[in-house]
Design goal:
The longest helix has 19 residues. This protein has 5 helices and 8 strands. 40% of the residues are buried. It has 2 domains: 76 residues, OB fold (Dihydrolipoamide Acetyltransferase, E2P) (Beta Barrel), CATH 2.40.50; 138 residues, Recombination protein O, C-terminal domain (de novo design (two linked rop proteins), Up-down Bundle), CATH 1.20.1440. By secondary structure, the chain is an alpha+beta fold. It is 32% helix and 26% strand.
């Protein structure tokens, strides 16, 4: 029996489906990842066309059962349309959506991860935060929401305060250069500072380099590759 329910969600992927429909991937606060059809959304007169765009964050009304859902209404909370005004921000925004899409699971809510992306997009669009800094912060929150809290201030091996270079390894986490192993990801002093307080880093080139290394860390920890920025960097 079909049920109607609300999902506060951000649209992360859109695929054309059949002649006039669109298939949406929605990452919701309450239900995890949801796939739903927006019927007639490709028509010029479609009233829910706005709800079938990536970055749309809103209250979606869905009807269906057993993973087969139809979008029947949506109240938009924020479109994040301003992100399209800058190509760099646009790439980073899609990378945020990709990170959320690849780490969220259907039927397993992770509101912290969804809100991390929403806040990250807001900080880029409305708070004039450097895009890669916002993305680094978003990735760290997503990792923490999954139980992987990276501490860039203290060595997880000897407990000393990290005031120089550091190393990441899957087995040990973030460790100081004195405890570091040869097979870990090397993090310079400046990268460590950048990732310790990512939202405060205004140096675009440093934030970009930190982002490359952080995405490598995400891959080693979660086996998730974030590919949207490969051509942008």
């Amino acid at each position: 029996m079909s049920e109607t329910f609300k999902a506060t969600a951000i649209c992360t992927r859109v695929v054309d489906y059949r002649e006039n429909d669109r298939l949406l991937e929605l990452c919701s606060l309450e239900h995890g990842k949801i796939t739903a059809v927006a019927r007639g959304a490709k028509k010029a007169s479609a009233k829910l066309k706005f709800a079938t765009s990536p970055f749309c964050f809103g209250d979606y009304m869905l009807i269906g059962t057993n993973g087969k859902y139809i979008v029947c209404d949506c109240v938009e909370i924020e479109s994040f349309s301003a992100i399209t005004e800058d190509l760099n921000s646009y790439y980073v925004g899609f990378a945020m959506l990709e990170a959320l899409s690849k780490t969220l699971i259907a039927g397993q809510p992770n509101s912290e991860a969804v809100l991390a992306v929403v806040r990250g997009l807001k900080s880029i669009c409305f708070d004039d935060i450097e895009p890669y800094s916002a993305f680094n912060n978003c990735l760290l929150v997503i990792l923490e929401s999954l139980g992987y809290n990276l501490d860039f201030s203290t060595c997880s091996s000897c407990g000393c305060v990290i005031d120089g270079d550091a190393v990441f390894s899957v087995a040990d986490g973030i460790i100081c250069e004195h405890c570091g192993s040869y097979d870990g990801i090397k993090l310079s002093r400046n990268i460590v500072k950048c990732l310790h307080h990512p939202i405060e880093c205004e140096d675009e080139s440093l934030s970009k380099m930190a982002n490359i290394l952080l995405r490598d860390i995400v891959y080693l920890m979660l086996n998730v590759k974030i590919n949207c920025l490969n051509t942008a960097l």
